[in-house]
Specification:
Length: 167
């Protein structure tokens, strides 16, 4: 079995598990409440997501997702600070929205014209598949892995400190 075939099989298994996990409330995933039987799969998927982030996203979004990558200054529109997605979405990680942006169904000005998918099409076209269904499943798994990493990279809300009363 080739390395590519091994990764495909792992990603398909991960995609199925993560598809179920993504249905959980964001707080459960953020708190690591995924159950012991899924912990290894979750950590493998998280690491794969981190690797994908470094390979595909960090050039624009920076090593830690702050939008300060080495290519950021060359872009017409600055990349988003990916550590603030949850804060900007009222305290919930926007799973579906971020998935669609990465896949290319939600146009993002810095990623090119509205009809240009960012990564879904690029990853799909780079795979040696005979049918689109297998490529689509692989790409969905890869995006879910990236989502797990991005969810874990969210900065916590600043704690509210009450000023002492001067009574």
């Amino acid at each position: 079995m080739t390395t590519l075939q091994q990764r495909i099989i792992r990603t398909l298994g991960t995609a199925c598990t993560l598809g179920a996990l993504a249905l959980l409330p964001g707080q459960a995933l953020a708190a690591g409440d995924i159950g012991e039987s899924n912990r290894g799969t979750y950590m493998d998927a998280w690491q794969a997501g981190r690797n994908t982030f470094v390979d595909a996203c960090s050039t624009c979004h920076g090593a830690f997702g702050y939008g300060d990558g080495i290519s950021a200054k060359a872009l017409e529109i600055a990349p988003s600070d990916l550590t603030q997605l949850t804060r900007r979405n009222g305290g919930e990680f926007p799973w579906v929205y971020v998935y669609e942006v990465i896949d290319g169904r939600k146009p993002v000005a810095s990623h090119g014209p509205a009809g240009m998918p960012a990564w879904g099409r690029i990853w799909t076209q780079s795979l040696p598949y005979d049918n689109a269904r297998d490529a689509d499943i692989y790409v969905r798994g890869r995006i879910f892995e990236l989502l797990l990493y991005l969810d874990s990279a969210q900065e916590p809300e600043p704690e509210q400190v009450e000023e002492p009363s001067q009574d």
